[in-house]
Specification:
- The protein is mainly alpha-helical and 147 residues long.
- The protein has helices at 2-9, 12-45, 70-101, 142-146; strands at residues 55-57, 67-69, 113-114, 124-125.
- It contains four helices and four strands, in the order ααββαββα.
- A two-stranded antiparallel sheet has the order 1-2.
- Helix 2 (12-45) runs antiparallel to helix 3.
- 5% of the residues are buried.
- The model has no long low-confidence stretch (mean pLDDT 78).
């Protein structure tokens, strides 16, 4: 039972989805900080308002609603970079190493592809001799001839 659970967790799809969700959550924090600290004060400036910090006062001195707080945004940006580095070095890199030991390649560069002239499918491997969809012979390429 535990072996099955381990195999489920180590499937590439589960880890890719988990990493995607983590990145999305961190990116949402970055976007929220940008909107709260940069966009909202610009919009509020049209209405009128003072604060202290790293940034510029767009309205009356001391109105926090019209303060362009660059420091808070930079803080969120630094958080995002550090968070992504932690995700990469503590999750992605060990997972790649573990899967490579099992003979599975994950997070690899995509293989070169080309389009089939007959059915116009654009995901035929560059080294393929026949189209996987319509079965037509593919024109030879220098890379395929060298193999």
């Amino acid at each position: 039972m535990l072996k099955g659970f381990k195999n489920f967790l180590m499937r590439g799809d589960v880890v890719v989805v988990a990493v995607g969700l983590i990145i999305a959550l961190a990116f949402s924090t970055l976007i929220k900080a940008f909107t709260d600290s940069v966009v909202n004060p610009i919009i509020t400036r049209a209405q009128g308002g003072h604060s202290v910090g790293l940034g510029w006062q767009l309205g009356d001195a001391g109105n926090t609603a019209t303060y362009l707080d660059v420091g808070q945004f930079l803080s969120a940006l630094i958080y995002f970079v550090i968070f992504m580095a932690v995700v990469y070095f503590l999750i992605v890199a060990p997972y790649k190493f573990f899967q490579a030991r099992r003979g599975i390649v994950v997070f690899d560069d995509p293989k070169p592809v080309r389009a089939c002239p007959a059915c116009l499918a654009d995901d035929i491997p560059a080294s393929a001799s026949k189209c996987r969809y319509c079965g037509t012979d593919q024109p030879s390429t220098p890379a395929r001839d060298a193999v």
